[in-house]
Specification:
With about 220 residues, the protein is α/β, with parallel strands linked by helices. It folds into two domains: about 140 residues, Rossmann fold (3-Layer(aba) Sandwich); about 70 residues, Orthogonal Bundle (DNA polymerase, domain 1), CATH 1.10.150.240. The protein is built from ten helices and six strands, in the order E-H-H-H-H-H-E-H-E-H-E-H-E-H-E-H. The protein has a six-stranded parallel β-sheet, sandwiched between helices. About 40% of the residues are buried. The structure holds 6-O-phosphono-beta-D-glucopyranose and magnesium ion. 6-O-phosphono-beta-D-glucopyranose binds next to helix 3.
Length: about 220
């Protein structure tokens, strides 16, 4: 098992924050008179904050100036952080704590590789800030997924060859980023969206220690 490690996406893999992103974007959509549904919200998974706003504006065919865009993103983020502030350990998705404990016990390095600029505050809320060997988030990258930058920086921090990294992702953009980084990928979700993943699971509950051992061999 030597020389390999894991890179975890945050939103949708460690915690289910998509519902809070949705609520916060929905409030903005209402303000702008845009009919934004949970289906539309699927399009925002794994996508950067600025791209999310563009998708939302596209749904409503609304045009904003750059200054307005910045202001609305700040407003959305403030609302999102109000939801995040109420998070605790109970929001860690099934199987994750057990898997991280196994990796830690066996000294297998693992990094966060997230698009979110709020990653640290979320990890702190669910008491996982100190669990990771390294953390790479939206503040560390200049190019969003599907660009492989976030995962390549994580590999560097883990001191691992990309080909020895296993990425866990719930978004199509993340699976594509893993492929472009020459890493193995595990998709959490549906075939329709994540068919390109090397291993596909319908829930983090299937991310067992037994599977991790297989992936490491
Ligand atoms: C990703 C989420 O992890 O982070 C996206 O899946 C989100 O939905 C992106 O837009 C950026 O998050 P944040 O917290 O920086 O607005
Ligand atoms: Mg995700």
């Amino acid at each position: 098992m030597e020389g390999k490690g894991f890179i975890f996406d945050l939103d949708g893999v460690i915690v289910d924050t998509a519902k809070y992103h949705y609520l916060a974007w929905k409030e903005l959509a209402n303000q702008l008179g845009i009919n934004f549904t949970e289906e539309h919200n699927e399009l925002l998974k794994g996508v950067s904050r600025v791209k999310s706003l563009e998708i939302l504006l596209g749904v409503g065919d609304v045009t904003l100036s750059d200054t307005e865009k910045v202001r609305y993103m700040e407003e959305k983020n403030t609302r999102y952080l109000e939801y995040v502030a109420k998070m605790d350990e109970s929001e860690i998705l099934p199987g994750i704590k057990e898997l991280l404990a196994f990796l830690k016990e066996n000294k297998i390095p693992f990094s966060l590789g997230s698009a979110s600029k709020n990653a640290r505050v979320i990890l702190e809320g669910v008491n996982l800030l100190d669990a990771f060997t390294a953390i790479v988030d939206g503040n560390d990258v200049s190019k969003a997924k599907p660009d492989p930058e976030v995962f390549l920086i994580a590999a560097e921090k883990l001191k691992l060859e990309p080909k020895n990294c296993i990425v866990i992702e719930d978004a199509a953009a993340g699976i594509e980023a893993a492929k472009r980084a020459n890493m193995k990928s595990v998709g959490i979700g549906e075939e329709e969206m994540l068919g390109a993943a090397d291993v596909l699971l319908d829930s983090t509950a299937k991310l067992t220690v037994a599977l991790a051992k297989e992936l490491l061999n």
